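Please go through the sequence line and token line underneath and see whether the fold suits the sequence. See right below:
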Amino acid sequence: MRCIEAAQERDGSFALAESASRPPATRSDNLFSTAMVVGLLSKELRPETLARAAAYLVARRDSTGFWAWLADGTMPADADDTACCLGALACAGAHVDRTASVKLLRRFWRLGGPFQTWMTRRMWGWGSRERDDAVVNCNVLWAIRVLGGTSRRAEQAAATRIVARTPAGTRYYCSAASVAWAAARVGIATPHLVRPADAALANRPLDCALWLLASQRQWSEGAALLLAHQEADGGWPGEAWLHDHAGDWESRSVTTAFAIAALTQTIAPD
């Protein structure tokens, strides 16, 4: 845990980096990686570390109550940042109006579903259905639950449908492992997503951690495989996690957070 706390930036964030081998077209930003680390490790981080990260998230909220990938107003608010920030703040024990937050998330709902990724009324560009994302929908359902709400039947059904239509990674997430994990934590089965053989995960610590979390302790070899990737300072190397049309982002802090969460789940008593 010390390695991830040592990686915290002065502003309280955790870094998201462009992949050196395949850089994305969109600028990097630490908001989403910070929300993910907090959401995964709110019970493990020291109070001061958690408070600094939560303050960073709160400071990034815009005047309408949403969050956006970039802070400069060049991109619309999006469901993924908003859901993961609200869920992370709730997990961290920060003050959020939970009832109002659930209503805010439901403003991303399309008529007939699913949740759209971007906050726009247009049916093209940012608002086109091709941008609807399985992981984003699962993250919204997770945030609703963490905030004390209950997902509606139509919301769960729409998320289940989009997950079932997703055979691999998504428009925004590099790997099928992210889909499997996001679906598993909101109770959506993914029998169509098959975990790679152990040998294929030998140099993929993030995917290894995600599949271990998605397996819900049914993959007995996963913990040993993940521990084999651990580096000398106790962390895990970054791996392609998110992408746009041009390239990938990675985060050593996020990979480490997923690894810690996966190992904590694996060794937790029944």
Remarks:
- The chain has a mean pLDDT of 95.
- The chain has eleven helices and three strands.
- The radius of gyration is 17 Å.
- Residues 2-267 form a domain with the Glycosyltransferase fold (CATH 1.50.10.20).
